[in-house]
Amino acid sequence: MYKENMAEILDLEVRVPSGLYHIPLNNYQRYMQVVEGVDVESEESSDFLNLKALDIFCGLQLKDSYKLPMSAFNAVLEQLAKCLSEETPLVKRFTMRGTDGAQIEFGFNPNIKEMSFGEYVDLDTYIKDWKQMHKAMAVLYRPVIGSKRDMYRIEDYESSDKYADLLRYMPTSVALGALVFFYRLGMKLAKRLISSSLDQIPLKDLSKAESKFLEKGGVGISHYTLLLEVMSQNLTRLQNNHYISV
To answer: How far apart are CA 180 and CA 41, in angstroms?
Structure first.
């Protein structure tokens, strides 16, 4: 869903997403690649990023952005900032429309403890690179093939290529929810890993979702802490932009 506003201004149609859920992951990937290539602390870069945000998220070309009155320009950016600063909890299941038009329900891997070596290697390869984040999501999320109440099963893992192209269009909020889940869990674990093993970590300091994650095994969590700096830098770069932040 988009908030269609200011269409009357100079005959321009500005389609502003109403939330992160309505921003496809591939658009967010495009923007993150732009962010990673500039110094977000400079005023020139801030203006450039704002224009790119209007282009990527609203479909407004550069030449048209320059025609917007300042009040309209700022209003659109404020709405984008609101979208991109939303909380992103872990989403275990969501639905997408496949290339054949059929609805497909995807589920977050409910049994991380049984993650295969192939899944682990692929996730480690892709999750560090925004250009390949859709492939990382294709490791973490796969079609649900059976469910009962809150329990569900997903397809066995074959390769990230099987669903990566489709998951380019998954909701950004879902992808960020998975990343933030690992990031927050890793931040808490990193403080303890220096002097203790995972078996010695008290669960009382973790959230319910994080505790359940560890109780089921938490395979590879110590390795994910090595990704925290990369993920933190990506989040910080967006926060430093005057208008667009996460």
So the answer is: 24
Nearest one of 193, 154, 176, 148 to 235, comparing CA atoms:
176
Q: What is the C-alpha end-to-end distance of the chain, expressed in Å? A: 20
Nearest alpha carbon to residue 111 among 101, 99, 103, 119: 119
Residues 107 and 72 occupy one common structural domain: no
Task: Judge contact between 155 and 145, C-beta under 8 A.
Answer: yes
Q: Which residue range is the domain that position 183 belongs to?
A: 93-236
The maximal CA–CA distance of the chain, rounded, in angstroms, is: 63
Same domain, 194 and 130: yes
> How many other C-beta atoms lie within 10 A of the C-beta of residue 167?
26
* Tokens linked to 48: 């450039």
Q: Do the bridges between strand 2-5 and strand 14-17 make them parallel or antiparallel, or are there none, so unpaired?
A: antiparallel
> What is the number of structural domains in the chain?
2
Same domain, 80 and 140: no
Residues 6 or more apart from 163 whose CB is under 8 A from it? 106, 138, 141, 142, 143
Residues 105 and 211 in one domain: yes
Residues 148 and 215 in one domain: yes
Using one digit for the tens of pLDDT, what is the confidence trace for 105-164?
A: 999 999 876 788 898 889 888 988 899 999 999 999 999 999 998 899 999 999 999 999
Copy the structure tokens of residue 198. Answer: 């995972």
